[in-house]
Amino acid sequence: MKYFDTIENYFSAWLSKDGEVLPMVFADDVIYSECYGPEYRGLNQIQRWFSDWNQRGTVLQWDIKNMIESGSTLCVEWYFRCEFDGCVDGFDGVSWIEFDEAGKIVSLREFQSKPEHHYPYGQP
Hints:
The chain is α+β, with helices and mostly antiparallel strands. It has helices at residues 4-16, 22-25, 43-56; strands spanning 26-33, 39-41, 57-70, 73-84, 87-99, 105-113. Strands 2-1-6-5-4-3 form a six-stranded mixed β-sheet.
């Protein structure tokens, strides 16, 4: 997959709290929409968010479960777990990611799903 290393480097940056990789991953005019509402416009806002978030939190796990690539678009299914302000939480998610000609992310939209599932009609 053409864009796998870029995503792997980005997820690893959160685990290691190393923001140096961000300019190599994101285009200057990127738009990043988190799954619970915040949206960051431009590399500068992403760098500020990364720094601010990592002062209060730690990413404990960010595992890639599946990827689908079509042209310059990549869909990534993942599991994310973190400690933030003393609370540990985790969730499943999907990122819809678009890349520019230079291989940098120009658009990233996250979608969240609860990791616990229940079966209202029983398990088959």
